[in-house]
Amino acid sequence: MAAQQSQGIQTLLEAEKEAAKIVQQARQYRVQKLKDARTEATKEIEEYRKAKEAEFKEFEASHAGVIHSTQQSVDKDAEVKLKEITDQYNANKDKVVKKLLDRVVLVQPELHRNLRKVGQ
């Protein structure tokens, strides 16, 4: 009977070792699957990022011409207006200086209107 119990215990110990091996393999399998999933997710994220960058560059390139032509148009308008202002300045500066000097130099002395009323 002792031999039979010893054999039963031995069988149980072997079964326990086998179960431990199976559990260890399952853990390793799970860890490997997680690593594979992370790697795959990283690849997908990188592909998506590259696709979006390419899409943005294409969008930017297609609209760069519009921005450039608009900037040229604005610059041209600014030059035209600046030339008009410069021309007006050059045409009228002598008149403005003369008017200012006339107002400062040619003073007509008069009594203040309130003073005239009191003196009358």
Mean pLDDT across the residues is 88
User: How many H/I helical runs?
Assistant: 2
State the secondary-structure class. mainly alpha
Helix content: over 70%
Order of helices and strands: HH
Q: What count of structural domains?
A: 1
Task: Sum up the overall morphology in one term.
Answer: rod-shaped
What Rg is obtained from the alpha carbons, in whole angstroms?
48 Å
Largest sheet: none
**What portion of the residues fall into strands of 2 or more residues?**
under 5%
Distance between the termini: 153 Å
Detail the poorly predicted runs. none
The strand count comes to 0
What does this entry look like structurally?
With 120 residues, the chain is mainly alpha-helical. The protein has one domain. It has 2 helices and no strands. It has helices spanning 2-105, 113-119. It is rod-shaped, with a radius of gyration of 48 Å. The protein starts with a helix and ends with a helix. The model has no long low-confidence stretch (mean pLDDT 88).
